[in-house]
Amino acid sequence: MHKTDVGGVRIGLNGPDEVREAFKPVAATGHNGTGVLVQRQLTGQVELVTGIAHDPLFGSVVLLGLGGVHTDLLGDRALRPTPITDLDAGRMWRGLRSAPLLTGYRGTPTVDTTALEDLLLRLGRLAEDLPEIAELDLNPVLAGPGGVIAVDPKLRLTPVGAEPDPTLRRLSAAQPS
Predict the structure, then answer these.
(1) Distance separating alpha carbons of residues 36 and 98, to the nearest angstrom
(2) In this predicted structure, what is the pLDDT of residue 130?
(3) What DSSP string runs through 32-49?
(4) What's the CATH fold of domain 46-173?
(5) DSSP string covering 59-125
(6) Which of 127, 126, 142 is nearest to 48 (CA)?
(7) Is the CB of residue 117 less than 8 Å from the CB of residue 90?
(8) At a CB cut-off of 8 Å and minimum separation 6, what does 154 contact?
(9) Residue 51 has what DSSP assignment?
């Protein structure tokens, strides 16, 4: 269940009184661990999803897609096996149907795509260095003119078994697309 579906997230709160009023219902959902996180709400950003998924036979892939409530609804996403290059990172966001939202669609602010590509490259490197990351879900990642911010990370670790030869993955990743 997504936190928003069960009332585990409240947005648009203005001031301490509204935060106090929202505290008990949010805490009662049990989706916030041992407490409730209160943070400044950012607006004017494009919501993206990024992450890592690892398969012991295939290796790791890096994910990028339209995030927030649109993730499941529209399924606009790109996947690349590790290792990923700067060319892969650029192709990932440019290949999304929603890419115009990142480049100033209808006068909206242009997203810092260099920061987005850097995030994708870092995720790829993290996946290569730490195969025990079974899943890393960053949803949403707020992307705007000033960079990208991962708001709600989720991480699942598993023991590493007999992994495939990383050289084979590198050779398969070198094939032209």
Answers:
(1) 32
(2) 92
(3) TTTS----PPP-S-EEEE
(4) D-amino Acid Aminotransferase; Chain A, domain 1 (3.30.470)
(5) EEEEEEEE-TTHHHHH--EEEEESS--HHHHHHHHHTSTTGGGGTTGGGPPPP-HHHHHHHHHHHHH
(6) 142
(7) yes
(8) 135, 136, 137, 139
(9) E
Task: Provide the residue ranges of all domains of the chain, joining segments of one domain with +.
Answer: 1-41, 46-173
Distance CA 122, CA 128 (A): 10
Closest of 33, 57, 34, 78 to residue 168, by C-alpha: 57
Question: Each residue of 36-81: pLDDT tens digit?
Answer: 777 777 666 899 999 999 987 788 999 999 987 777 778 899 999 9
**Strand, helix or coil at 168?**
helix
Task: Please say whether the beta carbons of 116 and 48 come within 8 A.
Answer: yes
Ranges under pLDDT 50 in the chain: none
Q: What's residue 135's pLDDT?
A: 96
Interatomic CA distance for residues 115 and 130, integer angstroms: 22
Tell the residue number behind the tokens 């100033």, with chain if given: 104
